[in-house]
Amino acid sequence: MSRKRNSMNNFIWGILGNIITSIVAIIIPRLFIVNYGSEVNGLLSSIRQIYVYLALLEVGVGDASVVALYGPIGNEDHLAANKILAATDRYYKKIGCIYAACVVGLGFIYPLLLDTSIPYMTCCLVIILQGSGSVISYLVQGKYNMLLRVDNRNYVTTNLTTVTSVFTDISRIFLLMHGKSIVEVQTTYLIFNLIKMVYVSWYIKKHYKWLDLSVEPNYQAIAQRGAVFVHQISSLVFSHTDVLLLTFVCGLKTVSIYSMYATIYGMVDNIITITSNSIQSALGQIFNTDRKRYMELHEVFETYYLALVFSLLAIATIFILPFMKLYTEGSDINYIDWKLPVLFGMYQLLSYGRVPSNMVIGFANEFKTTQWRACLEAIINLAVSFVCVFKFGIYGVLFGTIAALIYRANDVIIFANHHIFKRSMWPTYRKWGVNAIIFILIVILFLEISLKLDSYIGLFMNAIWISICIVLIFFIINSFVEKKARKIAWQYLKSSFTVFFNR
User: Fold this and answer.
1) What does the alpha-carbon distance between residue 58 and residue 92 come to, in Å, rounded to a whole number?
2) What would the 3-class secondary structure string for 89-143 be?
3) CA–CA separation, 246 vs 242, rounded Å?
4) CA–CA separation, 413 vs 422, rounded Å?
């Protein structure tokens, strides 16, 4: 019952946290654009992508640790869990020291590679401050985050991140509106990451008294970190290569355009990710302890997860251009381009639509078996993006990402169903087909309807009723088509809400 309760907590607090941070954070990019120009906004986006790649220093330790912990945590084998976490802790401390050196080196070298009017020392300090949070995470709280994730207590870190993000953004807004330098604005990252470190350490000591990192480390339990690392490289390539290519080929202003669309879609991404993460740990434990029950829950998860993904992205496709027109009014470059929502929409559908099957591969610890497939995905992305970016610019990098995802999404679906479940791929493809048809029809319908979207109030009021209608349409049709999933979901929801309201 604790699994259900924690899953509900993860979902509810995750959604609330996303709403709060999205409202506050949406203000930041515009303030950067208006006060410092699109070049500074592009620089910050470029730096964020660099640090995503620098995270490869982790070499798959985190995800390998999570997979290894599902069994011990599910069976309350504290000794085995301590040995895995001890190994994780030792790896993370080494990684943290190397990461810190790389942050300093990057701060001094990267500004020399940019064609920008931003002062060298400003770039240097901004880069170092941006990376300080990850250094703290690796050195202190990295292994704690893994424990909370596996124990289905994501809501702890979600709540903490929400609170610190709100205070960080409020501080940044205050500093921006009072004309402070970009260096002073970025200092807020360091301050609030230190606060997060203190709180997480306190929470773990209070609630996990059995935790003992002095035991003999079990390095063998996370031996698949190398194979996990290959998958992480692939994920980072198709998610973050675009910005780096645009930085050096098209310039920081084009990066700013790309990052603005990515930011809006990122809000949708957050809701989708929260949904999957809220139950991932529970599903992972069930997969390793009760395979029959997992098969039932997988049908439910896949059905309604895909309905959620397609419905949210349909909403984003309808409203992103009207919002972007209002949001970027008065900026120094044009941000309006109808082709970008189409390409971003395809990218997101392929990326998140494969998540249920991809989770199964992770639960089954099939990282090594599938690593060459991940390598091929990365190669396709890099090759197509590099060739196309010089001719098509911002569209070219998206072509590369979509090409790689078309291959990999189908490969993941086939592997999960055929190799792990030993069944036909048809149930998954049927769900994809149904949702794709609904998506196309809804987008065409609402784009044909004349809506008053020339103000924030008009946009917001129309977005409310249209979003409710779209989500209901997707869920109702999927419930009608997938009768088995509907029955299981209804039983599970009744049980979950009973647990939640009777606490």
Assistant:
1) 7
2) HHHHHHHHHHHHHHHHHHHHHHHHHCCCCCCHHHHHHHHHHHHHHHHHHHHHHHH
3) 6
4) 12
pLDDT value of residue 361: 82
C-alpha distances out from residue 124 to 112, 118, 201, Å: 10, 10, 30
Mean pLDDT of the chain, nearest integer: 78
Instruction: Compute the half-sphere exposure of residue 344: CA atoms within 13 Å on the CB side of its CA.
Output: 27
Q: Which residues contact 152 (CB under 8 A, 6 or more apart)?
A: 2, 3, 6, 7, 10, 281, 282, 285
pLDDT in tens, 151-170: 777 777 777 777 787 788 78
Phi, psi of 406 (to 5 degrees): -60, -45
3-state secondary structure of 453: coil
How is residue 62 written in tokens? 């985190």
- Identify residue 198 by its one-letter amino acid code: V
Instruction: Determine if the pTM surpasses 0.85.
Output: no
Note the pLDDT of residue 19. 65
Which amino acid would we find at residue 56?
A: L
Closest among 363, 364, 354 to 425, alpha carbons compared? 354
Nearest Cα residue to 192 out of 213, 176, 210, 169: 169
pLDDT at 1 over 50: no
Here the tokens at position 14 are 């995750």
Question: CB count, 10 Å around CB of 113?
Answer: 9
> Quick one: pLDDT at residue 437?
93
DSSP for 373-441, written as a single string: HHHHHHHHHHHHHHHHHHHHTHHHHHHHHHHHHHHHHHHHHHIIIIIIS-S-SHHHHHHHHHHHHHHHH
